[in-house]
């Protein structure tokens, strides 16, 4: 396939950017670098290696190779910082409108805060800043989540989950909490209110709701049920049916539905992008053919060719096998070609039947003439 330039329309936006920024060309180069596949692949590799070294820090190598691990962590942080600076330089405004970019920025800032706290703290394993330092070190594991900003499929899933939690799951959880509150009050009076009741699991509303949460997850609920009287079976069965079978399945169904809708929207977006690329290629092809025809017309005006046939023959030599073809033209449409060939077959069949009919008519006329001749040969002569 022939290479097609990425820009086809008028460069009005580029002209505006040039008037706004004196380093427009260099900014465009940096933007192409940050959006290139090899750059994103390199950052993905760095994230993977960073995850490997963070895993090594949890082993005995933290003591034996502490300097090497700290040096590698600083190298990774430097790479993330360079990436962040390049993206901000390429798109100083649009960078802050992306949630993934904001997440990356927060991760880098947390890493710098950790280094500052480590530098201030004389004893890294103790002192006033140890609790803060421990939290900051634990938050370094969030660097691995930066993979989401480079994988479009993961972005679709995360977006669907966030939209589900924000729009629907909150209502489901509130309704489940209301149900747990209702059954918690009932369980307190049924099993924990008397002096001989179960104070450990049903002694107050908080413990009762925590016990009911185990019923929702159906994890260890049989052990809890054994400590209750036999009359509590109806209570437990009703709550497990409502809390586990209904609410859990509704929660899963809502997530699956939203992920399905997000996936369809992602597929439609990909189709729109492909159609846009095809439209750009078509526009480029038409523009190229128009330029070729203009050149041929100019050459004809210069009397270089004797006639139009010679000019068309020369134009045919300029065509290449990798040239694009407009499939919307009727002569290049497969369905039209198939219909045309079928019509030709029917036309041949019709012509054959007409020939047979003419032959039969001629035979009838000859037979009729012979009969007339046999009846009255004198008149026929």
From TrEMBL:
Keywords associated with the record: Glycoprotein, Ion channel, Ion transport, Membrane, Repeat, Transmembrane, Transmembrane helix, Transport, Voltage-gated channel
GO biological process, one term: sperm capacitation
Keyword Hydrolase in annotation: no
Transmembrane segments: 38-56, 168-190, 233-257
Gene3D superfamilies in the record: 1.10.287.70, Voltage-gated potassium channels. Chain C
A GO CC annotation given for this chain: CatSper complex
Protein name: Cation channel sperm-associated protein 3-like
Organism of provenance: Branchiostoma belcheri
